[in-house]
Each structure stands twice: as structure tokens, then as C-alpha cells.
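Comment thread on ticket #2218

A.B. wrote:
> Attaching the input chain for the structure job we discussed in standup.
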Amino acid sequence: MSRIKSIRGREIFTHDGYMYIFDAFNFNKTKKFWRCRYKNDCSCRIHTSTETSEVLKILNDHSYDSEAALIEANEAITYMKQRAKDTLEPTSSVINECTSGIS
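C.D. wrote:
> Ran it. Output below, let me know if you need it in another format.
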């Protein structure tokens, strides 16, 4: 699972080249329910373990192609934002450091 945050700072779960937004917990909070980030166009959902983030169940198929490149870009952006917040490095240093490994 990659560590990506949405614009509003919410956690995004990635699996097999697709992104999911947290929706809810089950009644005893042992499972997390995620929905596809394109909830209006795609009905795919996924269930994960709260403790291990292991995928337990996948419901429906996606109605679009995977977004591997977008996921990589979002990971870099999330890392840049966090690093800029945590360090006193100049902006150009943060950008160069964070984008050096991107394909």
C-alpha cells in the first residue's frame, strides 16, 4: 500500500493500479471499506484488514483502465508536501530530491 493523501488530506489506498477512498469501518472496526475514487462512474469496492491492510475482498470490476502513472505522481506529490512541511530545505531542493526516482 502506498501512502497517498487526497487534496483534503484523507488517506488513499492503492491496489493493482487503482485508487480507493476510505468509506467506513465494519461494526467492530476490524475491516475498512474503501470505494473507487470515481464513485459516480465506477462501482468497484474493496475491503481490507484494519491491522495489516491486507485485501480481504474485492467487489465489482472497474469501469476504466488502471492509473499506475497517476499513482506514482500522487505518491511523489504527497512525499514532497510532507518533506516541505518537515524540513527547512529550499523548495528547489525538495522538488529535486523527491522527483529524482520518478519514471
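A.B. wrote:
> Thanks. Noting for the ticket: The CA atoms of residues 11 and 68 lie 17 Å apart.
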